Amino acid sequence: MLADLPASTSAPDASVVRVLSYNVRSMRDDVAALARVIRACAADVVCIQEAPRFFRWRKAAARLARESGLVYVTGGATASGPMILSSLRAHVEHTEDVLLPRTPGLHQRGFATAVLRFGQARLGVLSCHLSIDERERYVQGGLLLEQLGALGVPYAVAAGDLNDRPDGRTFGRLAGVLQDGWATAPWGREHTTRLGDPLQRIDAVFATAGVEVLGCGVPMGLPGVAVPDLRAATDHLPVLAAVRVPVA
């Protein structure tokens, strides 16, 4: 059985926060299985990609939050897919949804961002789903770094579906500035593509300098995370990280 990550804690000098990144494929699959996986991960922050963004998308977002034991923070259609959910432990200070410049013929992309407070620790959060086009994706990587800087807090995480592998140009651009959670403190399973698909790590959690990554990876083997649920929930595997955020 896979050992659990450190539990969420608050202390005078720092706070441990559990961050989950998950591409939910517009909730077209087994939502009950999806919710069970999210609940088992016991995350404080969930960065969603491919959240529903068309007809009655707010109702779908509310359903996912409710069944996962979380609350809606921001994003969805307003960020063209990325969304942020959180536990009641998080105090929401600020949110902003950002639409990115669009290449004609390609999908609109965006960022869901928030500044959350856990005890005395403040954490910027960015959920992203980058382009399938290599050139557009590289530009979006630069915009992601700019947006993290614009959050106005010293500590932040960015999580999402990069559509790029660790040896790719955009992944490398981000990893050159931020801490790649898996590379920093590997835990669980590395590859994030659907079970049975070619092995790739295209989903990741990154952290700014000063954030201590305690562990990061796909939570296969974590108590409560069942392989049948992972297969039924969506076409990506989730990435779970535990990070220690200092008090600024």
Automatic annotation (TrEMBL):
One of its GO terms (molecular function) is exonuclease activity. This is Endonuclease/exonuclease/phosphatase family protein. InterPro entries: Endo/exonu/phosph_ase_sf (IPR036691), Endo/exonuclease/phosphatase (IPR005135). Residues 20-236 form the Endonuclease/exonuclease/phosphatase domain. Keywords: Endonuclease, Exonuclease, Hydrolase, Nuclease. Gene3D superfamilies: Endonuclease/exonuclease/phosphatase. It holds the Pfam family Exo_endo_phos.
